[in-house]
Amino acid sequence: MDLPEREASLPLTQGLILFAAGFGIFATVIALLAQLGLPDSVAAIIFALFILAMAAVAAFAGRTMSLSEFHLAAGRIPPFHNGLALAASFLSATGFLGLASLFLAEGSGGYAVIAGWALGFLALALFTAPGFRRARVVTIADFLALRYGDSTVRTLAAVITILVTFTLLSAALWIGGYVIAALLDTGIEAGIAIMALAVLVGPLLGGLRAITLTGMACAVVLLIAFLAPLVILSLDAYGTPLPFLAYGRALRDLAMIGGDSGSLTIVPGSLLPVGEPGGFAMAAIVLSLAAGIASMPHLVTRCAAARGTGAARQSVGWALVFLLLVFASAPAYGIFARLTFLSDPSLSGMEADALVMALPAIAELPAAMSALAAAGALAAILAAGAALLFVIGQTLGHDLYAGLLRRHPSASRQMIAIRLFLVATASIAAWSAMRLGDAILSPGAAAFALAGSALFPPLFLGIWWKRANAAGALAGMAAGFLIAVLYIYATTVLGMGEWHLFGGSGLPPMAAGLFGLPAGLAATILVSLATAEPSEETRAIVAAIRSSAPNPLLDDRGI
Q1: In which band, very low, low, confident or very high, does the pLDDT at 349 lie, cut at 50, 70 and 90?
Q2: Which helix (H) or strand (E) holds 137?
Q3: 128, 141, 430, 434: which has the fewest C-beta neighbours closer than 10 Å?
């Protein structure tokens, strides 16, 4: 990093350090007050209000009327900070709670999920993020329209982007509403409404600039909230503050007291409905998650805020570093929880997600730890929800409104349109979450399989294969999406049993990419070969995307 970049990143770094220190002191003070008699319900309300106020302050600090700042944060976010926001946007409650729940329920799928997520971020760093950043585009649909030179490609990619991210957004709002209802002692519908407002304020005021600040703050909160109970449990039981080092000793203790023998029955959680897949099913989950992460719209577009292609790779690398803290600690969280719950037979038969949230209280940790854990989950949902909502509004406003319906509107008109779309989308997603309830969680968990099946083939081949053309991209998106949707719909709605291939366990809906991804790749390749070659201009664009040298085809493009 050169001197100007260091000077530009200094205020962000200083602000991040001050916030981390301030939140640590705040959490410590609340914990001490709880020990002195502050009611648990009051501590929960204080933490919830802190997270909601944090979202409002970050949104106000990131407000902007510049279209470049709104769409891309002007492409000036340093890799460390961008990676922190990227990690927070990804984790949500699925990674924060769902992963620990898998290990608590002794689901072998937890290892498949970790492998798929890690491989997906590597694929994002190597195959899609640099080319996307080099193209100087705003959305995945915008990139595909530039690469393939076809408005129909833009339209189909925009529709798929909206469908995929909307399911995740609705699921995030339902989970967030559930957490807020528990913290504030309200009804779940009121919690969903509050969550929708909290998620909306950042994208509405500042776009990517505001949700970057929100994501950074949320990452600090969720890391502290996730690791603090683990560190305390690890110190108390094994004398080390590093829970992943105590994991092996905890496994030994669990085996010695018969924790694997069924003395405690835990219902698998619904945040990550993976179960206990066999070898082939685990490979299918890894493949689906990896392709999905490498093409998930709210993760790929985050890389557009980086300062260049190298910075985009570094951002993903930093995100993976932060995520590895969670990945390495989640198994220990599950094992510590199981050891704790074995002492209370009345907990047998409860759902893993609820038990993970209740671990600090059941383990008799300081009273404020339960509220802190819930606040961490709320922060994770807030960061992910804001990123998902922004991508939907951005796609509607930039690709459908500005790109198709009203060509080249003024910057002010486009920003008004995007903000109206954001309000409408948040309202519809909140209504959907209220109406569907926890039934939205299963489609939400399969969203990565849909993204990998429909968007990864044209995105990956568009960067790395010059022969791919618009007809192939359309065929690949349609084939991948329809086949993945067919499997997900048949197994979740029609009641068809999960397929057992090669004598292994059933393939859960989130492994639908096993069918959709090969179909999408094959359709893109075969149709491209059977139709006309791309034009010379398109080939020149591909060469420019794959090169780091300045090129007027890309460098002169505006938003």
Answers
A1: low
A2: none
A3: 434
Q: Specify the DSSP class assigned to residue 505.
A: -
Structure tokens at 103: 């290990």
Residue 121 lies in a domain: yes
Burial code (b: 16+ CB inside 10 Å, e: under 16) for 188-213 equals beebbbbbbebbbbbbbbbbbbbbbb
Tokens representing residue 21 in the block = 């220190």
CA distance 333 to 340: 11
Packing angle of the helix pair 243-256, 309-341 (nearest 10 deg): 30
**Rounded CA gap, 15 and 40, in Å?**
30
Instruction: Tell me the CA distances in angstroms from 278 to 33, 118, 285, 443, 502, one per residue in order.
Output: 48, 20, 10, 22, 10
pTM of the model: 0.93
Q: Using 50, 70 and 90 to split pLDDT, how confident is the model at 3? A: very low
Does position 261 have pLDDT exceeding 60, yes or no?
no
| Domain range enclosing 256 | 14-60+76-261+275-437
Among 220, 203, 219, residue whose Cα is nearest residue 211: 203
Q: Which residues pair with 351 in a beta bridge?
A: 267
SS3 label, residue 24: helix
119 domain residue, yes or no: yes
Q: Report d(CA 160, CA 400) in Å as an integer.
A: 12
Tens of pLDDT, residue by residue over 196-230, are 999 999 999 999 999 999 999 999 998 898 888 88
Q: Give the distance from CA 362 to its chain's centroid.
A: 29
Contact call for residues 143 and 135 (beta carbons, < 8 A): yes
- CATH number of the domain enclosing 288: 1.20.1730.10
Is residue 557 domain-resident? Answer: no
> What are the pLDDT digits (tens) for 114-157?
999 999 999 999 999 999 999 989 999 999 999 999 999 999 99
